[in-house]
Write a structure and sequence with these properties.
The chain has 210 residues and is α+β, with helices and mostly antiparallel strands. It has a six-stranded antiparallel sheet, with no helix packed on it. Strand 7 and strand 8 form a beta hairpin. It is globular and about 55 Å long. The chain has two domains: 63 residues, no CATH class; 134 residues, no CATH class. The protein is 18% helix and 37% strand.
Length: 210
């Protein structure tokens, strides 16, 4: 068999300062060279066959863009429960909660948010397989007075992957939500899809002093 011509390396393919598309073009040229010249010679030698699959897998994975920001979290915003003269809730009045807030996942007795102060929202993890998450909010004011509310999130869990070569994630679709009403007035679902897009899922409206 004719000895294959050595693969020429692009002059600026992998040196510092090259961009992502140049590197992809370089990898594509390696793959084309492999398929045209090396694959026929490897298939003629059974002892080398194990290397074919590994190299093809490497070359194919290099072209897959798996998301780096892939933490699945539920996103909450905090708002003041203000009503107009007709009794309609006025949405969108964002507030910062000055009390110290700790959030516990009931059933697992796991603290998922510890002593947050002066924030206008939060991000919480979601259980993988449970149909309903029960989370308890504990508020402690500057006089050490404690108030608690519980939120129940009923959801459907779905496996998701961006590509077969990327890790699988669990996404969630909110079906229903309810809460106690000691400090929380209302909870609205603004985006029922919980994934890693970072969009607000829930608006919690807190009672305000009149």
């Amino acid at each position: 068999m004719r000895r294959p011509t050595p693969l020429p390396l692009p002059g600026h393919s992998v040196r510092e300062g090259s961009n992502y598309h140049q590197e992809l073009n370089y990898l594509d040229s390696i793959k084309d060279y492999f398929l045209k010249y090396l694959l026929p010679s490897l298939t003629e030698c059974p002892g080398r066959g194990w290397g074919v699959g590994l190299l093809v897998l490497f070359l194919s994975c290099e072209n897959v863009s798996c998301p780096l920001n892939n933490t699945v979290e539920s996103v909450y915003g905090f708002y003041a429960a203000l009503y107009d003269d007709s009794g309609e809730l006025q949405t969108g009045n964002a507030v910062s909660v000055g009390d110290t807030l700790t959030v516990t996942l009931l059933g697992a007795d796991s603290v998922i948010l510890n002593r947050q102060v002066n924030q206008n929202g939060m991000k919480l993890p979601v259980s993988f397989y449970e149909d309903t998450d029960a989370v308890e909010f504990t508020f402690t004011d500057t006089l050490s007075r404690v108030g608690r509310d519980t939120l129940w999130i009923h959801k459907r869990n779905t496996h998701h992957w961006d590509d077969p070569s990327c890790p699988v994630h669990m996404w969630h679709q909110v079906l229903d939500i309810r809460s106690t009403h000691h400090l929380i007035d209302t909870v609205l679902v603004t985006n029922a899809s919980i994934n890693y897009d970072g969009l607000e899922n829930f608006q919690i409206y807190f009672r305000v002093a009149q």
